[in-house]
Structures are given as structure tokens and as C-alpha cells.
Amino acid sequence: MNEFSLIENYFNWDNLDLNALGVGDDCALISIEDNYQLATSVDTLIEGVHFPSQTSPADIAYKALSVNLSDLAAMGATPKYFTLALTLPEVDEHWLEEFSGSLKSLASKYKIDLLGGDTTKGKLSITINVTGIVPRHKALLRSSAKVGDVIFISNTIGDAALAWQQIQQNTQPSQNLLKQFNTPEPQVALGQSLIGIANACIDISDGLEQDLGHLLKHSHVGAKINLADIPLSKEVTDYLEKTKDWCLPLAGGDDYQLCFTVVPDKVSEVKALAKELGVQLNSIGVITKDTGLKYLKGLDQECSAYQHF
Ligand code: ADP
Ligand code: MG
After folding, report:
1. Does residue 80 sit in the same domain as residue 197?
2. Distance between CA atoms of 123 and 200, rounded to whole angstroms?
3. Could you tell me the sign of the dihedral formed by the alpha carbons of 134, 136, 141, 144, in that order?
4. Closest ligand to residue 117's CA
5. Which among 36, 210, 211, 226 is most buried, taking Cβ atoms within 10 Å?
6. What does the pLDDT look like over 286-299, one tens digit per residue?
7. Does a structural domain hold residue 309?
């Protein structure tokens, strides 16, 4: 199968947005609605770095799109379009069938159109560029947390990191942990709903400590976090009881939850939102004038988050 029939067979889908020009020409064309800004982001997944070699093609596709959707969620943007740059070691039709099937079903769940891409031969790597729309000047930024804001995070953290640790130790992770690791759910509806409620927001991809650290730095503020308030799954709670290794949930990464700050007056709106969306939203601390991140109950470990270089 040549490059062009590969694209035609697996990646040329019907678009939801009939005003956009998709796969086939030199560029995709997008019409921008008045009073909106485009939000755009790109992430690459490399075999052996972002997913283990034994990962199924369906899970690779899911994670590649999901981590990008998580960036749109963090800005409060509505997903609209994506492009896919795919580098494959060989043409394996079974692999392509599973990969494109999973990608297409996640894309249709989040109503995002595949508008183009690039297909090359080499070591397996997947780059997805997502574009969303957000009402002009309303996007959730990292830079606008205010002193006194309450800090929230969605759901639980540390599950993917625990799954990864168990895989490396040849232990079979629970279904719950594996789900977080292979098919993380981007918090798109939450991000959109936080517009007008949250002052600042970031998605937790490299661990709460590092990503909250970015938000604090960009906002020129600090934070006090109560470790006991950090929401954890039963598996991670058990792990902490045994090991006291707080670095796993704080710096393990791959959570794709949202961390956001709100003025105290809006805490009740956050509680209502949690009910409406069926998502856990827990307050874990407050924004302080003193810069830096402090743990109320103390943390007797220095954690190092993943960095590529
Ligand atoms: P060009 O050589 O002009 O860059 P290509 O031959 O690479 O174009 O691609 C032809 C068309 O197919 C383009 O519209 C491109 O966006 C699309 N395309 C290529 N690879 C993919 C892919 N993996 N997924 C979706 N669309 C793709
Ligand atoms: Mg090309």
C-alpha cells in the first residue's frame, strides 16, 4: 500500500464542520468565527518514551489524541480540528485498522475533525496538533491566579504513575490504574465550564508539583497545599501506606487532570459543577503571596518530575 492509499483508506473521514477544507489539498482551511480565538497545541508521542512498546495501537491512538485534548481543556477551549503526523516503521494494515478506528471513535466522542497530516517512514512516533475555539479573551491562563484563591484538582492523581511503575516491575496493574495510564480521559467539559469561574488553570501532565509550579511562577504567587486533601485512588492510598513515597502522586505525571484556582466566593459554584458533571473536584490548598510551594503537613522528600533533557 502506498502513502496515498494509506491516507485515503485510514485517515480520510467525513468532517463535522462542513465549512472546513480537510484532507486532500496542500493545506487545510478553517473559517474562524467572530469573537472567538483559536487555541492550538501540539504533542508528540514516541515509542519507548511516552508509551511502552507493547502498547496496543488502539491505546496509542487514544493517548495521542487525549493528551492533546487535555491541553485544550486546560484553556477552556472547545475542540474543533486536529492534524496527525504519523511516522511508521512499516505499513501494517492490522495496526492501522486498530489505530485509526480508536482515533476516529475518540475524535467523534469529542466532536473534533481530522483535517490533515503527514505520513512518513521511521521509528514509530505520533504527533497530533489540535485546534479549538474559545470566546475572545476568556481562555483560562496559567498566569492569572490571585492571592487567596482556592486551589482545586479534578479526580485523582498518581494512578498512571503507579501503573507504569508496576508494569516496569512486571506486576499486573489493576483495571482502574491501566485505564488511567493507557486511556486517560481529557477533562474537556470541565475546562469549558470553568470559563467565568476559574482565575487560572493548567493540566497536570508532568505531575502536580511541577505543573502547579508553572502556574505559580506565571502568576507570580505561591501556594500552601495540604497533602491530606489530595484525592487519591484506593490503589495509590495503599501504595503510600506501604512506601510513604509521595513523589509518585506528586511528580509521577500522566494524570491529565485539571488544576485550577477560584476566588473563595466561587467555591460553591465549583461544588455545583462537580455534581453536574459527575467529576470529583477537591480543594487542596490556597494561593499565597509568598512565592514557592509549601506543604502544610511537610514533605520530607525532594521529588524530581520527568524532563526530556
Ligand atoms: P504534501 O506533500 O502537499 O505535504 P501529502 O502528500 O503529505 O501532502 O499529504 C496529502 C494530503 O493528505 C494532505 O492534505 C495531508 O494533510 C493529508 N495527510 C497526510 N498524511 C495524513 C495523515 N496521517 N492523517 C491525515 N491526513 C494526512
Ligand atoms: Mg507531506
Report:
1. no
2. 38
3. negative
4. 1
5. 211
6. 999 999 999 886 67
7. no
